[in-house]
Design brief:
The protein is built from 8 helices and 4 strands. By secondary structure, the protein is an alpha+beta fold. A hairpin with a 2-residue loop joins strand 1 and strand 2.
Length: 195
């Protein structure tokens, strides 16, 4: 898997194509860049068309080099060749060594993996969690809103009950208030107290 990720880092997008540069391919195949270029020149008909291979312009090369802070590419007399996935596949018919064949298989796997990443980008777990938190927050706010509505209704009912109880207590006090005694016994008791 480490080989695959190393190869994927060497795949660049230029002119709308996913490409590998000649010196990266030569390094992967374990040959010199000039040997790779000679093999391509001897079989140039196999690489006809930009969808197989093209030479970078000076501006494309400068833009690509500026993306990397450190570079082991060094100085070059010629601009690099860029090989698309089709061009890399065609290289397998030109370079016949066991190393070249094995590396070509790995490179093709890397191109497929890059294509899969483009077609099926990995799920952004952070965004997914943020969305879930937003939904949860909205739900909790609605629950508390409903709770507050219920709470307000309950509070009003409790106030009514308390008012009713207060009225009943007042009536009860009024009903249970000792009455002034009426009749003969009451007059007699009053007189006794006065004496």
């Amino acid at each position: 898997m480490d080989k695959l990720s190393n190869i994927q880092r060497k795949i660049h997008e230029i002119r709308g194509y996913k490409v590998m540069l000649d010196f990266d391919l030569a390094e992967s195949y374990g040959i010199e860049t000039k040997v790779l270029k000679q093999a391509v020149k001897r079989n140039i008909k196999r690489f006809n068309g930009e969808d197989f291979m093209f030479e970078l312009t000076r501006q494309e090369w400068n833009n690509l080099r500026s993306q990397f802070v450190t570079s082991s590419w060094g100085g070059m007399r010629y601009l690099p060749l860029a090989f698309t996935e089709l061009g890399v596949a065609m290289l397998s018919s030109v370079l016949k060594s066991d190393t070249a064949i094995e590396m070509n298989r790995n490179i093709m796997r890397a191109f497929v993996a890059v294509r899969q990443l483009i077609l099926n980008p990995p799920i952004d777990r952070v965004s997914e969690l943020q969305n879930e938190v937003r939904e949860l927050k909205k739900y909790v706010e609605n629950v508390f809103k409903d709770y507050n509505d219920i709470n307000e209704d309950t509070r009003l009912q409790l106030e009514l009950i308390n008012e009713s109880l207060a009225e009943l207590q007042a009536k009860n006090k009024a009903l249970n208030k000792p009455c002034n005694p009426i009749g003969f016994h009451a007059i007699q008791k009053r007189r006794e107290k006065e004496d």
